[in-house]
Each structure stands twice: as structure tokens, then as C-alpha cells.
Automatic annotation (TrEMBL):
The lineage of its organism: Bacteria, Pseudomonadati, Pseudomonadota, Alphaproteobacteria, Maricaulales. GO terms for biological process: L-leucine biosynthetic process. This is 3-isopropylmalate dehydrogenase. Substrate binds at R95, R105, R133, D218. The keyword Thylakoid does not apply. Pathway: Amino-acid biosynthesis; L-leucine biosynthesis; L-leucine from 3-methyl-2-oxobutanoate: step 3/4.
Length: 356
């Protein structure tokens, strides 16, 4: 039997709650799909600061590097705002150490959720996009200076960094509808001018079959609200991708619905819901676990190559949407743990898929 090693990093706030649902879902799908999972759990982020004085210990990093995939719940919270090392530093350190340079964030609107969007239902009908965000370069990883009355953050990109993430985006576009929109700020920033030139050269040289467009980030932010269904694959740099994907997360009605996959050239990848640690509802069993479940589907599909398991999981989530089995943020009555139980019930009603 195929056996995979999975590292769980529950993290902070609602992270442990959604991680518990994610683990139960992983175990259920693995049993139904004919493979095994071996789990190890480690403190990470603020939880690691509390126990070990740092957000990412050498032991945790070694466990991650030796695994087949990593599931992360959430990190951060006001408790650690004045800590010498913030929880988010552990996340940046993990991404850099594993060289997971591409972050894939799918955004789609299930028909049953169209009425939950803050936009009109007809605007979000048919939304199905993939945001590909560069993850280990740019301003988040640049040199920093800080004095009493001055601070600076360097944004830098090399051709090689742009090319490797652009290849991912072009290849994803080939698997989808053949459209790629590259987002930059080339009218102002030198890094963006390089970004646009490199992506344009790649499109002409290697991917002439892909319909390539370019858009300034401010125009893209507006277009996401005006005509979101027009996007197929969106490629952008680190900070722009962070902001745009959070904006896009509201199209289906809740940031709690969406997952992400952070990938490099080799295993392991890091899979996490895009929401934060939500300390205001932590410990109350109110979190929406659907983003964590979508992250598990990406873990199976992109991380392990278990595409049937991913399809099984997404089918169960779709059945929950059709039945109105939702948590409170979507107007439902289920708690986080109850949503996990209901998901497994839907999974166990899929005998035909198990036979396939």
C-alpha cells in the first residue's frame, strides 16, 4: 500500500480547529482511496514561540523537509505582535527553506454560493480562476532598514525568479482555458518592467498558444470586482498576489472557503487555507473548515498525485454546498467540527467513486 508522510503544523488561533477537520478528512479519503498516511504534528508560529522561543525550530524544519507534504492551519495573532520574532517569520522561513516559490490559489464560485457573494449573483456566476503568486522573492524577502524616523523595504526580482514562476502559470493556463493575465505595476516600478518584459518574451518564445495579457495591479483590483469571470490564470509577484488573492477570496462569500498550494520543483509542498488565525473566534468551534478541506484536495492532487482522492473530496464539498450544509459565516448552522463530521458522511456516500 502506498504510504505518505504528512507533517501537520496546526499553528495559532483557529489553526488547530481547522487542522483537526483536515486530518479527519485526509484519513477518511485515504481509507476510501486505497493509500495510507503517516502523520507527525509540530508546533509552529506563535505556538512554537510560546514553547521554544522561536516560530520555526530546526527540528520542525527537518521534519518538514523529510515529509511528502505539509499541512498548515494558520499563524499569527496580536499576542505576538511585540515578540522579538513574529509568527509570520516562521512561515517566511519555511517557504524560503523549502523553495516553494509558486503559490496556487484557485477561486471558484459554486452555484449554490452565488447569493452569498457581496457582489451581485450574475457578476460572480461562472467565476473560476487560478491566481499564481510568486512566493519567495520581492518586498517580503528584500533587505530592510529601520531607524527612528526612517524605514525601507527593498523589492528585488531576478530574471530566473520570474521565469520559474511564469512557467508554472503558463503551464496551468494550458491545463485550463488557455488565458494568462500577468499583473504588475510597470508604469512605475523597475521590478515590474523587468517582470513584464520577461513574461512577454516567454509567451512569444515558448507559449505562443496561450492568450497572454498584461494589467496594472490597480486596474486588476478593479477588474476583479467588475468582471471577475473574465479571468482564467492570473500571474503576479509576491505582495500583489497576497493582496489580490485576499480580494478575490470574497467573491464566493467568505475567505474561509479557499485553500492554497505552495510548490517548488520537488516535494514537499505546503498546503494551507488562505484565511488568517482569526483569534476573535479561536476556541469557539465557529471557523469555516472548507478552505482547509480545499487545501487537502490540493495536497492530494498537486502534492501527492492522488487525483482521484482530490476529486472525491471536492465532490463531497460540492454536495455540502448543494445541501446548504454551511458554517455560520455562510448563513448556516454547523460548527467547525460538525462540518467535518458532515463532510465524512458525504464522503462515505460515494461508493461508485471508490470502485473507479
Amino acid at each position: 500500500m502506498r504510504t505518505y508522510s504528512i507533517v501537520l503544523l496546526p499553528g495559532d488561533g483557529i489553526g488547530p480547529e481547522v487542522t483537526a477537520v483536515a486530518r479527519a478528512a485526509m484519513e477518511s479519503v485515504a481509507a476510501l482511496s486505497g493509500f495510507a498516511l503517516k502523520f507527525s504534528e509540530h508546533a509552529f508560529g506563535g505556538a512554537s514561540i510560546d514553547r521554544f522561543g522561536e516560530p520555526l525550530t530546526a527540528e520542525t524544519l527537518r521534519a518538514c523537509q523529510a515529509s511528502d507534504a505539509i499541512f498548515l492551519g494558520a499563524v499569527g495573532g496580536p499576542k505576538w505582535d511585540k515578540a522579538a520574532s513574529r509568527p509570520e517569520a516562521g512561515l517566511l522561513g519555511l517557504r524560503k527553506a523549502l523553495q516553494v516559490y509558486s503559490n496556487l490559489r484557485p477561486v471558484s464560485v459554486h452555484p449554490a454560493l452565488a447569493g452569498k457573494s457581496p457582489l451581485r449573483a450574475e457578476l460572480v456566476a461562472g467565476v473560476d480562476m487560478l491566481i499564481v503568486r510568486e512566493l519567495t522573492g520581492g518586498i517580503y524577502f528584500g533587505a530592510r532598514q529601520k531607524r527612528e524616523d526612517y524605514a525601507s523595504d527593498e523589492c528585488a526580482y531576478s530574471r530566473a525568479e520570474i521565469e520559474r514562476v511564469a512557467h508554472i502559470a503558463f503551464q496551468q493556463a494550458r491545463l485550463r482555458r488557455g488565458k494568462l493575465m500577468s499583473v504588475d505595476k510597470a508604469n512605475v516600478l523597475e521590478t515590474s518592467r523587468l517582470w513584464r518584459r520577461v513574461v512577454s518574451e516567454m509567451g512569444a518564445r515558448t507559449y505562443p498558444d496561450i492568450e497572454l495579457g498584461h494589467m496594472y495591479v490597480d486596474a486588476a483590483a478593479m477588474h476583479l470586482l467588475r468582471d471577475p469571470a473574465s479571468f482564467d490564470v492570473v500571474l503576479t509577484e509576491n505582495m500583489f498576489g497576497d493582496i489580490l488573492s485576499d480580494e478575490a477570496s470574497m467573491l464566493p462569500g467568505s475567505i474561509g472557503l479557499l485553500g492554497s498550494a505552495s510548490l517548488g520543483d520537488t516535494r514537499p509542498g505546503v498546503f494551507e487555507p488562505i484565511h488568517g488565525s482569526a483569534p476573535d473566534i479561536a476556541g469557539q468551534d465557529e471557523a469555516n473548515p472548507f478552505g482547509a478541506i480545499e487545501s487537502v484536495a490540493q495536497l492530494f492532487e498537486a502534492g501527492l498525485g492522488e487525483t482521484e482522492a482530490a476529486a472525491r473530496l471536492r465532490a463531497a464539498v460540492g454536495a455540502m454546498h448543494e445541501a446548504g450544509d454551511w458554517t455560520g459565516d455562510l448563513g448556516g448552522t454547523l460548527t467547525c467540527s460538525e462540518a467535518g463530521i458532515r463532510l465524512i458522511q458525504h464522503l462515505e456516500r460515494q461508493p461508485a467513486m471508490a470502485a473507479g
